[in-house]
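STRUCTURE:
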């Protein structure tokens, strides 16, 4: 049972409507309904009765609602006490360029709100470098895209991102459909990271499985310059939806790659718990919460929570 399920349930009872509660909570109605169903399954009892006018609690739901309200008040009081203790210290967090566009600012704002006395240092670089920095204890935690089995790290699988074909709308050969398979890209000019990049390695495996020989017209190992080339009409690229988060890329066309393996996993990785400072532990919680919130609110294109 999760705290958010309690908050969701209390909000639904108070509003008497899934739709109104979802609007207040900032989540889609289907996600809210799914969480309520999971709660009912865990408790093995029906908590809400659906009616033509909305929803009303059952007898079990009413009893649960009273206790849930009490539990949430205790949790809120505990959170307030923790914040008033004014956690301080410093923490270094690493994000890949594609991830920082959607997650970076939201995370920094959340940290400033929850822990204003924690000094935050952000590092933006390729995921391979982030893994090396984490191994060298130069950063405390990072969002990575594959696990390093030999490392003694704390690893939390957080979400998966679908990959998208991204390009200017008038690029010759650019698909106009919502989805496309790699094998259907034909001679579309592609601009991709070089072979040393983790995404390129993953794409190479996908190309091979699709029996597709891509027409790569340029290799760029920097997201900003790569997207400059795409906006300039030099070719299309294949990236996770987060690459479109920055305002300058909003006008680009995006087509979801429908091949089943066109997915990038996102792992929240940190040094081991016994090495992580209290500020680091707090930052890890905030980073995970912020990512989940962005996905739940539909602000992380193509992302799905684990």
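SEQUENCE:
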């Amino acid at each position: 049972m999760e705290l958010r399920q309690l908050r969701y349930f209390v909000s639904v009872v108070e509003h008497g409507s899934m739709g109104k509660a979802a609007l207040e909570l900032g989540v889609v109605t289907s996600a809210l309904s799914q969480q309520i169903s999971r709660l009912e399954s865990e408790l093995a009892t029906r908590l809400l009765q659906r009616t033509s006018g909305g929803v009303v609690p059952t007898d079990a739901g009413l009893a649960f609602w009273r206790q849930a309200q009490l539990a949430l008040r205790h949790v809120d009081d505990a959170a307030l006490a923790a914040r008033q203790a004014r956690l301080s210290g410093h923490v270094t967090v690493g994000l890949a360029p594609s991830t920082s566009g959607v997650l970076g600012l939201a995370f920094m704002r959340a940290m400033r709100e929850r822990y204003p006395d924690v000094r935050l240092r952000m590092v933006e670089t390729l995921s391979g470098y982030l893994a090396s920095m984490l191994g060298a204890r130069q950063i405390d935690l990072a969002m990575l895209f594959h696990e390093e089995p030999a490392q003694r790290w704390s690893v939390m699988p957080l979400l998966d991102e679908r990959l998208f074909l991204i390009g200017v709308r008038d690029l010759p050969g650019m698909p106009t459909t919502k989805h496309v398979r790699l094998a259907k890209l034909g001679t579309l000019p592609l601009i991709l990271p070089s072979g040393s990049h983790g995404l390129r390695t993953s794409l190479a495996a996908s190309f091979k499985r699709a029996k597709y020989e891509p027409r790569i017209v340029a290799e760029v190992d920097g997201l900003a310059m790569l997207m400059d080339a795409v906006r300039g009409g030099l070719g299309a690229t294949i990236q996770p939806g987060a690459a479109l988060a920055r305002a300058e890329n909003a006008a680009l066309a995006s087509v979801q790659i429908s091949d089943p393996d066109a997915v990038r996993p996102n792992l929240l990785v940190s040094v081991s718990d016994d090495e992580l400072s209290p500020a680091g532990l707090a930052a890890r919680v905030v980073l995970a919460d912020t990512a989940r919130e962005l996905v739940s609110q539909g602000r992380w294109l193509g992302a799905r929570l684990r």
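REMARK: The mean pLDDT is 91.
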